[in-house]
């Protein structure tokens, strides 16, 4: 059985432009970010989705909404709050609709703790290049009062395995609109990337990454990967 998983990092945000650590601060998209989301929507317009997921942060939610607004796959997205966020809507999507789950905290960006809001160049100048790299790119070194990428894997992966993997094993097409580090966490699992090599992975804003997956039993194997619009 074949499934499709599409990962997209939100469009460029205000603090991306300002070179600041963002984390869980709920900053908006800038004009370029809206344009990236619109371009991604055009690239994904003909996909027929079975489910979509996004975090509780507006930059990821807005990206998802723009992408789905352009979709002509024949099904209507019904936006549903994730379990445990607000009272769950009792309505369940019918055959010509599909659920788009909002406020999935497990898929949120890595929490940068005391670095949130700080300019990255100023942090580098104050603490030195070595410490800066450990905080920003190290796998298991969290910033003060924040999360490491390892911590992000520890919350994102169980949600993926419980809620999203069963859909893929059933041959569905799933879209995830999330963040650089939560998507790095999922990519690490999907592609079997080592703790050392994941440090080098960068996921660009607004670019859909499409995995074709072979599902056999409880196993998912990558049969193909395309980065849409790249190059």
Order of helices and strands: EHHEHEEHHHEHEE
Q: What share of residues is helical?
A: 25-40%
Global outline = globular
- What's the CATH architecture name? 3-Layer(aba) Sandwich
Major pleated sheet: 7 strands, mixed
What's the total count of β strands?
A: 7
Counting helices, strands and paired strands, the structural category is alpha/beta
Mind telling me the CATH superfamily name? Phosphoglycerate mutase-like
What layout of secondary structure does this protein have?
Elements: E1 2-9, H1 14-17, H2 31-43, E2 51-54, H3 58-69, E3 76-81, E4 97-102, H4 120-127, H5 129-137, H6 149-169, E5 173-178, H7 180-191, E6 209-216, E7 219-227
Parallel strand pairs: 1-5, 2-4, 2-5, 3-4
Antiparallel strand pairs: 1-6, 6-7
